[in-house]
Write a structure and sequence with these properties.
The chain is built from 19 helices and 14 strands. By secondary structure, it is of the alpha+beta class. The strands form five sheets. Strands 1-2-8-5-3 form a five-stranded mixed beta sheet, with helices on one face. A three-stranded antiparallel beta sheet has the order 4-13-9. A two-stranded antiparallel sheet has the order 6-7.
């Protein structure tokens, strides 16, 4: 535990100095523009760091104990409602009003109403639909092709999430809606939008408002159609339309818009990134790649896995755990304090912005020796604390779709790897890009081979070599 004797108050939190003219704002601009560089820079100052020395407006936490203090107390540390000061009644505000942004009693009620849709048994009932979608994708692949696996994973997760969550089976409609909301997320996460949040001609914020209107219209059309059909399916949206809280109340249409959007975006974006990075890491670690294919072939004999067989694939489980540790889809997340609080011997005011980082937490050498190495077998012995491994966050606001995402990833890898070997063309440049989530900048081109077991490690260039020890 990190402890400071009661009553002790250090003179000043460590942190980088401000820029001469912009002050704290200058450091914030740099952080938003290049999160990974600044997370690493800030973590070098210690476990509790100010974005700018002498200021406590933005506080960074780099230790499981501080993660626990923040994530286990949602009443004191609320989710950042980034667009609270945005245009009243705008589509943007409604699209962002989902589980990740609402707080208090409303969050508790909505989460309780949604939990039956994400119960383990309910999630497992989606297995057949997922297997069918994955099989369709793999049937289109031909040996010798070079495909952008980021786009392939995005398309596959879009098709799965829209069928499972919303009961959509029209692929063209699904992909149109998916690309619209992917554009919405891209613009929402743009640094320029955060730094200039004004509805003025020519500014990115205005373009975000316009695409938000299109996104809301598409989601409302989906809700109206589902309601007109009686909402009698077993998809998540149908269940939400029938869900009631303890007093018999239901979600308003505006609330349904927000929850649908957040489920849609979160349900495919993070899973897409996790799968893409896992395929990259396997290609760069031929020994692990070979061992995993051997495990899958030995257990599955060429067939899609049953739910029972997934429990008998321990290396697959370790590979995913290690991939999510090393390259978590969400490098940092945010909270804001609702009242004064103490942390690490310091006292902070209400409305302090706190940033916790799965990316840095997962690279603390005291928790994970050789933290930059991809070592799935570390999980044979490693048992981190609950708040020392947080790819899906933790506490009362842990990602509601974690079980669904893990099932989707395990099914895809167990069907893909025995059938195909994917390899990066030698010399490919791989640069991580953070726009709310972390993905390869410009995609990830990989050549498709039959599973010939010619596992090799192609040379790669780019910033990924700073994040992962590739030898």
């Amino acid at each position: 535990m990190i402890a400071t004797p009661p009553g002790t108050h250090m003179a000043e939190l460590p942190g980088p100095r401000t820029t001469p003219l912009l002050g704290v704002t200058g450091n914030y601009i740099r952080f938003v523009a290049d999160q990974l560089t600044w997370l690493e820079k800030l973590s070098s100052y210690g476990p509790l760091v100010a974005l700018s020395r002498g200021s406590t407006q933005h506080l960074f936490l780099f230790h499981p104990d501080y993660n626990m203090q923040v994530l286990s107390n949602p009443a004191l540390f609320r989710s950042l409602e980034l667009w609270r000061t945005g245009p009243e009644g705008s589509s943007l505000r409604r699209l962002w009003t989902g589980l990740v942004s609402i707080n208090g009693e409303v969050h508790r009620q909505h989460r309780r109403m949604m939990m039956p849709s994400f119960h383990k048994k309910k999630v497992e009932s989606y297995r057949d639909a997922m297997v069918a979608r994955i099989g369709q994708m793999l049937s289109r692949w031909k040996p010798g092709e070079v495909r952008d696996v980021f786009l392939e994973m995005r398309q596959m997760t879009l098709l799965i999430v829209t069928q499972v969550l919303f009961g959509l089976e029209d692929d063209q409609e699904t992909l149109r809606m998916g690309m619209l909301m992917a554009q919405w997320l891209e613009r929402y996460a743009s640094p320029a939008v955060h730094l200039m949040p004004w509805d003025k001609p020519g500014l990115p914020f205005r373009r975000l408002l316009r695409i938000s209107e299109r996104g809301e219209a598409a989601i409302r059309g989906l809700i109206d159609r589902k309601r007109a059909q009686g909402a009698d399916g077993d998809d998540v949206l149908s269940m939400l339309l029938h869900a009631r809280d303890e007093e018999g109340g239901s979600m308003s249409d505006a609330e349904l818009v927000g929850q649908t959007n957040i489920l849609f975006v979160a349900g495919h974006e993070t899973t897409t990134n996790a799968l893409t990075w896992t395929l990259f890491l396997l290609d760069q670690h031929p020994e692990v790649h070979a061992a995993l294919v051997e495990e899958l072939e030995g257990e599955l004999k060429g067939a899609p896995p049953t739910l029972e067989q997934l429990e008998r694939l321990p290396l697959l489980d370790r590979v995913l755990k290690e991939s999510l540790r090393l390259l978590p889809p969400v490098p940092a997340a945010f909270r804001a304090s609702t009242a004064p609080f103490e942390m690490g011997g310091h006292r902070f005011e209400a409305e302090t912005h706190l940033y916790y980082s799965p990316y840095i937490t997962h690279r603390l050498p005291d928790l994970y020796p050789e933290p930059k190495r991809f070592l799935p077998d570390r999980w044979l012995k490693t048992e981190p604390t609950v708040y020392g491994y947080i790819p899906f966050s933790n506490g009362p606001r842990r990602c509601i779709g974690a079980t669904l995402a893990l099932l989707e990833m395990k099914l895809l890898l167990s069907m893909l790897l025995p059938r195909f070997r994917l390899s990066l063309p030698p010399g490919t440049r791989v640069d991580p890009l953070v726009r709310a989530t972390m993905r390869p900048k410009g995609g990830l081109p990989m050549r498709i081979h039959t599973q010939d077991k010619h596992f090799e490690r192609p040379e790669v260039r780019g910033r990924i070599r700073d994040l992962v020890a590739l030898s």
